[in-house]
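sorry for the late reply, my laptop died twice this morning and i had to redo everyting from scratch. anyway the thing you sent over, i finally got around to it. pasting the sequence first so we're on the same page, its 316 residues, then the predicted structure underneath. double check i copied it right bc i was rushing
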Amino acid sequence: MKVPALLSALRIPVIGAPLFIVSNPDLVIAQCKAGVVGSFPTLNARPQSQLDEWLHQISEELGAWDRDHPGTPSAPFAVNQIVHRSNDRFDADLATCAKYKVPLVITSLGARAELNDAVHSWGGITLHDIIDDRYARKAIEKGADGLIAVAAGAGGHAGKWSPFALVQEIRQWFDGPLALSGAIASGGAVLAAQAMGADFAYIGSPFIATTEARASPEYKQGIVEGRAADIVNSSLFTGIAGNYLRESILAAGLDPDKLEAAGPEAMSFGGSSGAKAWRDIWGSGQGIGAIDDVVPAAEFIDRLAREYAAAKALLA
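ok and here's the structure:
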C-alpha cells in the first residue's frame, strides 16, 4: 500500500480527528509533538481571521520544537475543510491554508476537485472522509490522495457499516492511504485497524478527555464515565445520523429513547430547550469504555504507543 512520505514517519500510525468546537491549537500542537497527526476544523477558528492566528501559532511552535528536538521531530498537522456549498468561508479558509502551506487537508461533506488541485499546488495532500464505498470512489475521482473510512461506532456524524465491510470493499480497488475511524481507543485497536487493511487509525473521542481539549469539564467527565451503551444514534440534532452521549441528551430535557417523537422543534434551531448540537448535545464514539481519566494528550498517546508495541509483540 502506498503511504506518502509526509505520513510515513509517525511515532504510531494515528491521526487525531478534527473535533468540532473541541479541537484547538493547544491540542493540535500537543498531538504533533507526541508523534501523531493533530488536526482541527477551520470553522473552530471564529471569526475567520482567527484561522490565520491559529495557523501561525501552530507553525511557529512546531517549527521551534523541530529545531530543538531534531531526533524526535513533530508529526505533520492537518486542517479539516467542510467543502459543502453552504460553507461561505470555503474560499477564505482555503486561501489562509495556502498562505501557510498546510501539509494535510482533511475534507468533509462533499468532494471538490478545485480544493484538491489547490492543496497539491503547494505540495500538500488531501484525505477525504467517507461513509461508504460509493462516496470513496467519487472522492478519488475528484483528486483526493487518500480516504478516511468512517465506520459504525464513530463519534459525531458516523457511518453505519462495519469497519470490516467498509475497509475490504475499498481495498478491492484502492491502494492509497486509508485511515479507519470508529471506536478506536487503544493501541491494540490501532494495530487491528492495520490488520484489516487500513494504514492509520483515526481517533477522536478519546482526545475530548484531554487537558488541552476545548471541552467543558462535564463533557470530559462524560467521556470518562461513558460506555458503549451510553451512546445514542440519532439524526434529530443535525439532520444527519450521528452518535451522542446519552447524558447530554437527558440534560437537554429530551428522552434519548424517544427522539424520533421529539421532532426537530425540540432543539434550538426551532425550539425552546436552548440546547445546540455539539455545544450541549455531545458527540462521542462507542470506544470510550477504554477511557478512564482526563490526561494530557501526550500521556494518552504514550499509552497508545505502549499498547501498540505490546500488541505487535504478542503477535510476533
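Residues 262 and 273 are 12 Å apart (CA to CA).
thats about all i looked at so far, will dig more tmrw
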